[in-house]
């Protein structure tokens, strides 16, 4: 017999029946206490005795099964077990049963059997057994019935079971998985059960198809999987922009999650991620370096057996793996680097996919397709949401002027360009080595002009992140080369990047660096508004290439890990405490964004400035990093801002309850004065503008700190010391 055994070893069925009018024989069928009547309705039925010996049961012959004995049918076999007049169990489709317990007396009747695979069709007569209970226990679910007709089917090549109610009133048939969640199964509704997670949402079954399938199974002529006749094939097509817009506040970063048409998409915990127009078609894609992406299809009310993922692999390779309900590998496909053209990773299989994983060395996720079959049910070819798989190479190389072999920063780049048609008026500027290896990139906005008509102009300053060779090359997309000069302003004094030649201070790279984009029209947004909507942060991140950075410093009391004295509901955070931070600035404010995962939120309840005693992010700023870098003590230019996320309040709506934060505030500390003034070295920072919001696994904070509070001027090219942390 061919059975799926990697997850499901035994299926346990427990039948608890109320008392019959008399002892055993009054219930009918069972010959004596501990015996069950078994009938072979078709060929290929075998009796398995307690000593493991097997004997063929001829068609229309009946035998008695005792405890420890069972029945085994082939794919075309059919056996009928009779428990008096109360319960009939048909064993079909390569099924196997072993009688574990039969106990019948005047007070109760209990039957326990084990099922290993196949189809079980159960007729539990409520007229004869109003108070009886029929319980089926599997390795990953418990099914309880109180008078109903239903079926349980184990797919032969996948750890997936189906439960279908053929005749059930509400609460007659219930399924409880290992998560503890119970779901009702009503007439003509099917649910699948997998080793991981809850039972599926209810799937309305086409009962005409079901009755045909059951009749063929009873006749021994059916070879179709039940899932294929009750579940339609999935049909979803999405590019990366549609995925990102499903959660506009979520910037691509480790652990970021999106849901599009019930497909869950989560970026891996490791790697680097960014929203970037990788193939220059005007659509933001998910770029990753040594990253991964997981797709979860469990909420899709359709059968996923065909998956296409479109990628652009710049270096290394990309691998797509599809997984079954137990997260076992079904199949995989890899693709090498082809930076000049996108590729489609295509997988087709008879086993349904519940998950998929994409791993990439250096490249971009451009979109995906859950591809339905052709009209004749044959697999369809690869499908992609991308119109042009070739990456355009509309760049012109311009040599950058250099002095004494050193590239200066910032580079001031201006010119005339055709207005991009599908790129939100954005041009891509690249720094490259002469052999074409990319060093850095930045987007610049085109002012004026018309698409397909008069050219526009652009102007940008490009902050260089590295010490570059003099022969570095600038490439700008879609420009008119004869009208493109690189312009150095007459009153601008270049600052060289090499500190050995200029004496300029530059933080040693081993201590890490944050980069803050300058908020202007050149990166697609004129401002970051403190409104609790992260869309403007996403625009700034996508345009500048600066992404939220994971915070390595978290401070918490282990006793608070699960302590929640204020009744804030438990969250879905995968860790006790984790956070990311991002900065931006304009001439008026330093902006900071915190995205915090916290499994139990406990804010500080005091009225003073000791916000760090509760759950709160902190930001320490050293405005004279070069002047006191070697000094390990705090000085008056060392400032700390603590951010209170606010307090949690429920909407009070029992149907669609949600939570929100109110009354956030900030505190200012002069760290150089704490030693002498203590708490008097702090004050409420009412000049800081804040907005906070509640998420499914924590909270978000955005704050605007006036430069005047820092006694610092916010101009491009500046630098100062920062330390970001979060407490629990």
CATH architect. name of the largest domain: Sandwich
Total domain count: 4
Structural class: mainly beta
Low-confidence stretches: 1-31, 394-408, 479-511, 553-573, 651-657
Give helix % range. Answer: under 10%
Distance between the termini: 56 Å
CATH structural fold name of the largest domain: Jelly Rolls
Cα gyration radius (Å): 33 Å
Question: Your description of this structure?
Answer:
The protein has 728 residues and is mainly beta. The chain has four domains: 11-230, Jelly Rolls, CATH 2.60.120.1440; 236-370, Jelly Rolls (Sandwich); 395-504, no CATH class; 511-727, Immunoglobulin-like (Sandwich), CATH 2.60.40. 7% of the residues lie in helices and 41% in strands. The chain is built from eight helices and 49 strands. Strands 4-3-6-9-10-1-12-13-16-17 form a ten-stranded antiparallel sheet, with no helix packed on it. The radius of gyration is 33 Å and the shape is elongated.
Q: What key phrases describe this protein's structure?
A:
Jelly Rolls; mainly beta; nine-stranded antiparallel β-sheet; elongated; 728 residues; 7% helix
Topology, please?
Blueprint: E1 11-18, H1 24-27, E2 35-40, E3 45-48, E4 54-56, E5 62-66, E6 70-73, E7 78-83, E8 87-92, E9 96-104, E10 108-115, E11 118-124, E12 133-137, E13 141-145, E14 149-154, E15 161-167, E16 173-177, E17 182-184, E18 189-193, E19 203-204, H2 207-219, H3 226-230, E20 236-239, H4 240-245, E21 257-260, E22 263-267, E23 272-276, E24 285-296, E25 306-323, E26 329-336, E27 343-348, E28 355-370, E29 395-399, E30 408-409, E31 411-417, E32 426-432, E33 438-445, E34 456-462, E35 473-477, E36 495-496, H5 499-502, H6 535-544, E37 549-550, E38 554-555, E39 577-585, E40 589-598, E41 616-622, E42 638-644, E43 647-650, E44 659-662, E45 665-670, H7 671-677, E46 682-684, E47 689-695, E48 698-706, H8 707-710, E49 721-727
Parallel strand pairs: 38-49
Antiparallel strand pairs: 1-10, 1-12, 2-5, 2-7, 3-4, 3-6, 6-9, 7-8, 8-11, 9-10, 11-14, 12-13, 13-16, 14-15, 15-18, 16-17, 18-19, 20-28, 21-22, 22-24, 23-24, 24-28, 25-26, 25-27, 25-28, 29-35, 30-36, 31-34, 32-33, 32-35, 37-39, 39-40, 40-48, 41-42, 41-49, 42-45, 43-44, 45-46, 47-48
